[in-house]
Amino acid sequence: MATLHTVNKSPFMTQTLLSCINHAKDGDAILMIEDGVYGGMAGTGLSDAVAAKAASLNICVLTEDLEARGLDAGRLVEGVSAVGYDGFVDLVAETDRTQAWL
Amino acid sequence: MKFGVLISEGPYTHEAADTAYNFVKSAIAKGHEVPRVFFYHDGVNVSTRLSVPPQDERNIQKQWTALAAEHGVDLVVCIAAAQRRGILDENEASRQGKDANNIAEGFRISGLGQLIEMGIQTDRLVTFGD
Prior knowledge:
The complex is a heterodimer of chains A (102) and B (130).
Chain A: E1 3-7, H1 16-23, E2 29-32, H2 47-53, E3 58-62, H3 63-68, E4 81-83, H4 85-94, E5 97-101
Chain B: E1 2-7, H1 16-29, E2 33-39, H2 60-71, E3 74-78, H3 79-84, H4 90-95, E4 107-110, H5 113-121, E5 124-128
Parallel strand pairs in B: 1-2, 1-5, 2-3, 3-4
Helix pairs in contact in B: 1-2
């Protein structure tokens, strides 16, 4: 029973990404959307925490929200992938439930 | 697959109503069904037809109204949240002794039972908020 977790706030404003990463079970998916996409970038104070979970969780960021912020999908934490809205829909369908970290 | 969508953030605040709109459009384009979207808390503010954003800017209410007309999505606004924020349909305006109503086409005011029902009748519930 896998869960898709969505995180929509920057990890530099709130603790939701860290809480989410620490609560998620192996095999769960995390999708960073809106300002949450900053959490997927390499070279930040949180990159190591995200990278440490990239093998056991399916961690993704929403491409449209990366582009809206001028962020480069080539500079994501290793193991984090960019998906579009099609991928968002697939993640919702493939997992058993969706949990929004608001 | 059937998706239910819950929106709990107002329009033009951050992006919840926009992200939800893009998600619903993509889900329908991929062959999924989105029978209902439930607007709760400040999300009810999407449903006023009196908002007048600049012409070169997206009109979030009109986007949802068009989507509902095209794909038969049931746009339900929580009555308790709506009354606190001055969102009224004809029925409620008359019941509360108000001189006007402002609910946009495609939206209807109902209760939390509709949210619960959506949770039961759909395969997934996706929340967009603040």
